[in-house]
Amino acid sequence: MNQIIKTKYLILGAGPAGLQMGYFMEQGQQEYIILEKEASAGTFYKTQPVHRKLLSINKKHNFFEEEEFNERQDWNSLLCNDKEMKFPNYSDDLFPNADDLLRYLEDFSSFYKLNIHYNSEAQHIEKKGDNQFRVTTKSGEIYEGEALLLGLGAVSAVTPDDIEGIEYTTAYEEQSIDLEFYRNKRVAIIGAGNSAFETANYLSSSAGFVHVLCRNPPKFAWETHFPGDIRAVNNDIFDMYQLKSLHAVLNPNLKKVTKLPNGNLQTHHEYDYPDSKVPGTLKLTREYDHIIRCTGWRWVNQSLFSPEIIPETKSNGKYPVMNDMWESVNVSDMFFIGAAMQGNDRKSASGFIHGFRYNIRTLYHLLVEKYDSKPYPTTNYSPFVWEEYVQDLYDRLSMSAGLYQLFGNLGDLLIFSEDNTQAKYYKELPISYMPKVIPPKQHVLSISLEFGFHNYSESSLSFLGPSDPNETEKAAFLHPVIRHQYDGKVEEFHFGDSLLARWDLPHGDGGAVVSYHLDFQKWIKKVVGLDIDIPKAIEGGPFYKWESKECTNTSETS
Ligand SMILES: Cc1cc2nc3c(=O)[nH]c(=O)nc-3n(C[C@H](O)[C@H](O)[C@H](O)COP(=O)(O)OP(=O)(O)OC[C@H]3O[C@@H](n4cnc5c(N)ncnc54)[C@H](O)[C@@H]3O)c2cc1C
């Protein structure tokens, strides 16, 4: 039997997630090993996305100088302290080529000398007793670790099992990218996500027509604010459909794909008309030269595990079911890192580098707290001086990239001492984890950034100016929400919009449309009972109240 290699934190996969966790482990001088099946890091990006253009922006020029503020617009870098190890050094493109990200990830792993064992494919995972995972690799090495961190990325493509003949179609990752192959051909694409529309865009100049067949109506990131929904950069096909340029986006009920004697494929699909004057179903067929399926990925490979530690999954096996620190709900000490973290977050960026890099930093601190009894890092205000704290708060709201990318998922927490003379500040805790550290009989402020479009029925595209500065609790764009909690009672304060997401500057310099500082201070004074010296209201400001005559005129004309 091979010698057993023991470690404390056993990380599987040297993709961006494994590298990011490895970086924090290395910085914290923790005992860890990363097992990677390939001979180098980040190899997902050798072949994916197949058309090579990343969806992650690399916006290098942001007017402001502050590094953390600029991190909000750099979606590809891993978190680190060295400027030369930031992704913008690798590309000038707003949507970079995947080869640049691959080069960056390889350099990152060697620059930080991360402890990666390459050519080590985990093949079987079991748990010995209560507290040791044992991983056997393809070549028979045995590793043991106290905590297992799974960063295995997109482990397999999902193939729909309710479309007969789906096996005749080509998987996204196996499609040819030779445009000559599709010249003047009829192509159908099954799917409604970015990979379907990325493929459609790519083929649109070459194919005779491209039909995207969506099971559910497509969702656009500009409407939902979820970066996993269809991004505008993949959107040409909608324009061409609406302008009748042969390409189309359709929503049929696709039942079957058959192979015709001439080698082409035929779809058998239906449209229902329940509200027609003659309710019924249109049953159609259409011939295509190629059909490509882009139907999503699974983020858990259940075949790796011994039966007693198969992690529970949801959404047809796509995502792991995790607790509020990304630990499997049924296998303790097994954590998911990287894109699989989206199992806990279907509204912000946990499925992407620009989101999970912050989740991983938070998880690192939670792990060290759990396994090394080192408390989660906090800043102490002792004594608590409001003027000092409020300056820090405005910096966080206006600079923090973690709160910004993981809106509504990660938040900061200020916990006052019982007599309000001191306070403790936590950064970027999972909001769902906060109840674990909130004492019942102390004043607490939780701080997050959140969208508010759910307050309105109109499309996000009708918000082409600031939302009503007098009803900030309905502010539509990303804005600070401060929640006060005491003895189970929660009250909240919403700042209004700031176009550039800064609340620390006057409006003319890029701040919010009006200063909400006075209202905020009054609210804090009321809910926490702090002795704050509130300055007299400054008369005027950019909001001009209508006289009753003007209100009447408006209602007459509207
Ligand atoms: C088509 C497509 C396009 C995407 N585009 C973007 C994008 O532009 N920007 C973005 O931020 N995200 C994008 N994503 C999401 C993307 O998956 C993640 O951002 C990122 O690659 C996930 O990082 P990860 O470390 O979790 O997984 P991965 O990058 O997939 O890394 C997993 C690693 O685990 C290794 N591995 C797998 N099995 C084993 C095993 N048994 N033993 C040991 N090692 C193993 C793999 O070789 C790999 O190195 C895209 C996803 C898809 C499917």
Summarize the structure.
The chain has 558 residues and is an alpha/beta fold. The protein has 12 helices and 25 strands.
What does this protein structure show overall?
With 558 residues, this protein is an alpha/beta fold. The protein folds into three domains: 4-153 and 297-372, FAD/NAD(P)-binding domain (3-Layer(bba) Sandwich), CATH 3.50.50.60; 166-293, FAD/NAD(P)-binding domain (3-Layer(bba) Sandwich); 378-528, no CATH class. 21% of the residues lie in helices and 24% in strands. The protein has helices spanning 16-27, 44-47, 67-71, 98-111, 194-203, 221-224, 236-242, 353-372, 386-399, 401-405, 517-528, 548-557; strands spanning 4-12, 32-35, 116-117, 122-128, 132-137, 142-150, 156-157, 170-171, 186-190, 209-213, 248-250, 253-259, 265-273, 280-288, 290-293, 297-298, 313-314, 319-320, 334-336, 378-381, 410-416, 423-430, 444-450, 479-486, 489-494. Strands 1, 2, 3, 4, 5, 6 and 19 form a seven-stranded mixed β-sheet that branches. The chain has a six-stranded antiparallel β-sheet with strand order 20-22-21-23-24-25. The protein is globular. The termini are far apart. The structure holds flavin-adenine dinucleotide.
